[in-house]
C-alpha cells in the first residue's frame, strides 16, 4: 500500500488540473460598464471648443456600448443552448471510453504512485459520464414516446 507522500505525489497532476480549471473559471474580464461610465464623465469634462475630440470619444463610447450589447446577446444565446442540451451519441461514446480507460488503468501496475488516485478519478469520471449518457437516453426515449403518442391521436 503506498504511503501518504506517494499518494500526494500521485495526486499532484489531478490537483493541478483542478486548480487550473478553478483559476480559469474565476477569471474576470475588464469592467466595461465602469470604463464606459468613466468615459462618459470624461466626455462631459471636455471643453466645448474641442468638438472633434468630443466626437471621437463619443464614437468610442458608442462602439463599446454596441460591443457590450452584442456580448450580452451572445452570452444569452450560449446559455439557452446549454440549457436546452439534451444529450446525444457523444455522451454515450465518452461513457464507453471512460469505462474502457478505467479497465485499462486497472491492468496498470498497482505499485505506481498515482495509480490509486487516478483509478478513483476515472471511476468518478465514468459515473458522471454515465449519468449524462443516461439522462440523454431517457430524454430521447421520452421525446420518442411523446411523438408516437401524438401520431396515434
Outline type: flat
How much of the residues is beta strand, in percent?
A: under 5%
Low-confidence stretches: none
Task: Say what oligomer this is.
Answer: single chain
Helix content: over 70%
Q: How many strands in all?
A: 0
Summarize the main sheet: none
Order of helices and strands: HHHHH
Give the helix/strand class.
Answer: mainly alpha
Give the helix tally: 5
Distance between the termini: 64 Å
Number of domains: 2
Give average pLDDT, whole number.
83
Could you tell me the radius of gyration in angstroms? 27 Å
Give an overview of the whole structure.
The longest helix is centred in the last third of the chain and has 38 residues. The chain is 82% helix and 0% strand. It starts with a helix and ends with a helix. The chain folds into two domains: 57 residues; 66 residues. It has five helices and no strands. The chain is flat and about 80 Å long.
Keywords:
mainly alpha; 2 domains; 82% helix
Task: Summarize this structure briefly.
The protein is mainly α.
Blueprint of the fold:
Blueprint: H1 4-25, H2 32-45, H3 51-83, H4 89-106, H5 115-152
Helix pairs in contact: 1-5, 2-3, 4-5
Protein name: Transmembrane protein
Keywords: Membrane, Transmembrane, Transmembrane helix
Transmembrane segments: 92-109, 115-138
